[in-house]
Amino acid sequence: MGARTLLFSLLVFLHSFFIPLEAAVLKRGAPPGVPQYALDYAPLVYLHSDDEYRPSNIRSMLRNTQPLVNFQPIPGAPKPVTLDNLDQLNNFGGDSVYLTSVKDVAVDSQQAWLKGVTPDATGLTNGAISAAILVNEKDATTTDVFYFYFYNFNSGPPVWGIKFGDHVGDWEHMMVRFQNGVPSALWYSQHADGQAFTYEAVEKLGQRPIGYSAKGSHANYAMGGRHDHTIPNFNLPGAFFLVDDTNKGVLWDPTLSAYYYKFDAGTNSFTSYNPASPVNWLYFKGKWGDQQYPKEHEGQYILFGQARYSSGPTGPLGKELQRKDVCPSNVKPCWVRPFLTAKLEKE
Question: According to the lineage, what is the superkingdom (predicted)?
Fold first, then answer.
């Protein structure tokens, strides 16, 4: 063994011995042109250890669904539907189009495609592009980078032992606002609302912020533990009603399996940093999942105005990519917290 080879082997051994995975800056394979700061400060996500519904291949949704309007097939819709022609469904009903599971999830919610992919030891979802990273250069000094996370199924947490809010398709996101390439604040999506924090306040691995994905619902939190979100944008100091569970389960690095795009707010258009990546799917205005089943549907019930099986969400286009504040406009006032609030319970 040559001296150079011996030295290299020794360095690899020392690196693996002294630097655990969580402390290492995970390597990323982003295409050229992506701002380096968008990678250096990209959030890492802890998936709940007991969550059976993991990040999913975005394409796998299309392979297992069909576009419907009012629960009826769409005459003349493209077949098969792909990420390259998904936007054409806008001509057949726009936001009334639902990508509806071919096999009823109320009958079988254990279908393999709904389960997603568990990240490996490096944080990679092998064989599954499960994230989309969108860069919005708002002006000469301010850039918002959206980190979108995709799951094929949302399993709503039980309320007093009763399940609500299950649905096919789940788009969640974190957003980092940069000033001159320096992170200043983050947004954590939580159901229809969320929370904002200063960059200094949040937990990090190295310089990368941490998000905690809630079991089943995949809402993003800045801390592990239990979170009561009965009051939107605010975690109550006790577990009362609507509770999400998070913990340091599986560490996921969404940047390792992601599509990368630049968003132009002036033209409301997307450009891929990688010419080989699909773009048209980002213009789809419909819903990623089934329309809420009627109350007479098998397995469906509606109590207190809340359904067991609800409608799927809109995609990234519907998440207010051009926002004035760190929070979307429905969150008022936009409080960017300079500290983390106390956990409800220990993890």
Answer: Eukaryota
Among 34, 84, 33, residue whose Cα is nearest residue 283: 84
How high is the mean pLDDT in each 10-residue block of the chain (347 residues)?
Answer: 40 36 48 98 98 98 98 96 98 97 94 97 98 98 98 89 91 98 97 94 98 97 85 61 89 98 97 97 98 95 91 97 97 94 46
Report the distance separating Cα 137 and Cα 263, nearest Å. 8
d(CA 36, CA 182): 11
Contact between 39 and 254 under an 8 Å Cβ cutoff? The reply is no
| pTM score, whole prediction | 0.89
DSSP sequence for 136-151: EE-SSSEEEEEEEEEE
Distance CA 265, CA 279 (A): 16
Residue 151 dihedral angles phi and psi, to the nearest 5°? -130, 140
Distance CA 45, CA 224 (A): 11
Domain ranges of the chain: 34-337
Give the residue from 131, 147, 128 showing the smallest Cα distance to 63.
128
